[in-house]
Amino acid sequence: MVKEKILVIGASGQIGVELTIALRKIYGNANVIASDLREQNPLLEGTGPYVSLDVMNKEMLHVQVIRQNVTQIYLLAAILSATGEKNPNLAWNLNMQGLLNVLDIAREEKLHKVYWPSSIAVFGPTSPKINCPQQTIIEPITVYGISKYAGEFWCNYFHQRFNVDVRSLRYPGLISYKSAPGGGTTDYAIEIYQQALEEKKYECFLSEDTYLPMMYMPDAIKATIELMEAPAEKISVRTSYNISSMSFSPKEIAESIKQHIPAFKISFKSDYRQNIANSWPQSIDDTVAQKDWNWKPEYDLDKMTEDMLLNLKL
Ligand code: NAD
Ligand code: SER
After folding, report:
1. What confidence score (pLDDT) does residue 158 get?
2. Is 107 in contact with 164 (CB distance < 8 Å)?
3. Looking at the domain that runs over 6-171+217-228, which CATH code has it been given?
């Protein structure tokens, strides 16, 4: 087996913490280097090496890759949809330049693999709302969505032109309890569980019938690892794969919580994030991912609710 040395960039974030821990279980603690602009997340302390790193500083990144004999990079550093609308230039610069720095270094150093996540935010108001297909009209309206769509084509370009084995998933809204979310439109579906336990009430920034595609973190980690471990010849999509798990509205997640906390009350007050949510599909067709590398999620809404509440109570 080829010895891999993995660098996770953005390891202190919502996905980074859980993905780093999962990768360390597979490849060994010493072979997975966590890195971030922020300090190390407490959950990572004592589990393996950590370096402070800015993905925008290409020279320093390149030095780390050579010095640590890195063979794979997982690039998670990005500015998400809601925060991106507050500072479009910053979002565009980080989301694009960070990716280009990684792809350039991957080409120069002949890295074995690169992982970079895209998002359902690539889709826009003209994309189909229900079972949005892999290939369809894509006209995003947020700077985040534009950066993800452009990023998908850079990945495809580096694969076709330079043979870089870069792989990607269009994650739905991700729900988790270990590490705080980073400023997305789907963050309500995390806040609601915390508030239900602490306050028994929650004011939602999306309207009651806003359906969005969502996924529980264990399924997102599973999908990421399955994609990265699939043989290269199975990967037919070199932009980014649609993946799907569940879709629900704020009203429906509140109903699921009420089965455990009957006194829970939800109210609704839409803000600027409503417009972003309205532009995205309500559900996603992921038959290509199913066919290529046997993708299948494990969690539905009620199973996730049970697990979220159980773990948040601990
Ligand atoms: P997050 O905001 O929680 O984490 C991002 C991490 O990147 C943070 O710890 C941040 O400190 C770090 N970072 C920011 N700028 C950096 C820089 N210049 N150099 C190094 N590190 C830097 O985000 P997340 O939710 O974990 O998302 C990770 C990836 O997954 C992103 O590309 C995001 O677009 C994508 N994604 C996330 C979701 C979701 O629901 N969380 C959905 C779709 C796609
Ligand atoms: N959860 C992310 C967001 O809302 C989707 O990419 O920004």
Report:
1. 98
2. yes
3. 3.40.50.720
Second CATH level (architecture) for the domain 174-214+244-313: Alpha-Beta Complex (3.90)
Q: Tell me the CA–centroid distance for residue 262 and ligand 1, in Å.
A: 34
**144 noted as active-site residue:** yes
Encoded tokens for 151? 């990023």
- Cα 173 to averaged position of ligand 2 atoms, centre (Å): 5
* pTM assigned to the model: 0.98
Q: pLDDT (tens digit, 9 = 90+) per residue, 219-242?
A: 999 999 999 999 999 999 999 999
Ligand 1 pocket, residue 173 CB under 6 Å: yes
Same fold, 6-171+217-228 and 174-214+244-313: no
Rounded-to-integer distance, Cα 157 and Cα 243, Å:
22
| pLDDT tens readout for residues 178-194 | 988 999 999 999 999 99
**Residue 114 bridge partners (DSSP):** 73, 166
Q: Which amino acid is at 312?
A: L
